[in-house]
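Dear Dr. V.,

Thank you for agreeing to look over these. As mentioned in my earlier message, I'm a first-year student in the group and I'm still getting used to reading structure tokens, so any feedback on how I've presented them would be very welcome. I ran two proteins. I've put each sequence directly above its structure. The first is here:
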Amino acid sequence: MSRLENTLTTPVHVLGDATYAVQGDVCGVHGTGCPRTGDVAIADCTPFLPSYVPSVGCIMSSNTTCSIIASVMDSSSVSYYACVFPVGGEAPRVVDKFASRPIDKTAAPTPPTATHATMILVISVACACCLALAIVVVLIMKAKAQRTSRQQAAQARAIVDQALVPSSDDESGGEVILV
């Protein structure tokens, strides 16, 4: 049972870490309350955070402090407050006393398994299929372009041939000259 369980608390986010329940006046203009050593996160806990402990969650390993993290100097002169880790870097990691088994530091790295080989094969086949599809699309587009070009040439020849045939209405009997 944590020390905050049966009391009125407010969620407070720690800059660069999770959200914790804080009792009293929280960090801001009128308060300085921030998570303390031993507090357990109530939200936003992920394995990449400084307070994360495998198989347990996020546990604050040091007291955080309320600090002004930004100030805007305009007509309203606003300051932004946040709970931050102590100066000198991120919070020290808590040792996981609840780990199910010790880590063997002398173990050799595991060689790639059939699963890795299978994934490589699947990715290679997918890439080959994409390449084949791209080639087919290019060939189809090229064939369509050639067909269109031949059709346009045939239409042009038909127009020229039609222009060269003298019409029966032509009384002068002169030649038709194309320019």
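The second protein is here, in the same arrangement:
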Amino acid sequence: YYQQESAKLRQQIQMLQNSNRHLMGDSLSSLTVKELKQLENRLERGITRIRSKKIAEVERLQQANMVTGPELNAIQALASRNFFSPNVIEGGTAYSSHPDKKILHLG
């Protein structure tokens, strides 16, 4: 029984490590186009959630008068960045509008 549980846990750890590598942009060559699109969607949803939470936090701080005008403008500028608006180039390949960011756009 313990050997089976141990094997299951090792397999689960391996799957989580692979998932983390993929989220960090490593070991992507083994993924299919469908898997890459799913990964991109997961990343986009995560960024959207983070931005929403940050905007809500800024609004809460603004209501409590804890954020001044210049700070608020800087935070809002960061929160409103759109790293996922692709610039479609001939051939159907899409790249981020931020050349220093390595973001793959499929579709």
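From my reading of the second output: Residues 51 and 79 are 6 Å apart (CA to CA). Residues 32-105 form one domain. Does that match how you would interpret it?

Kind regards,
E.
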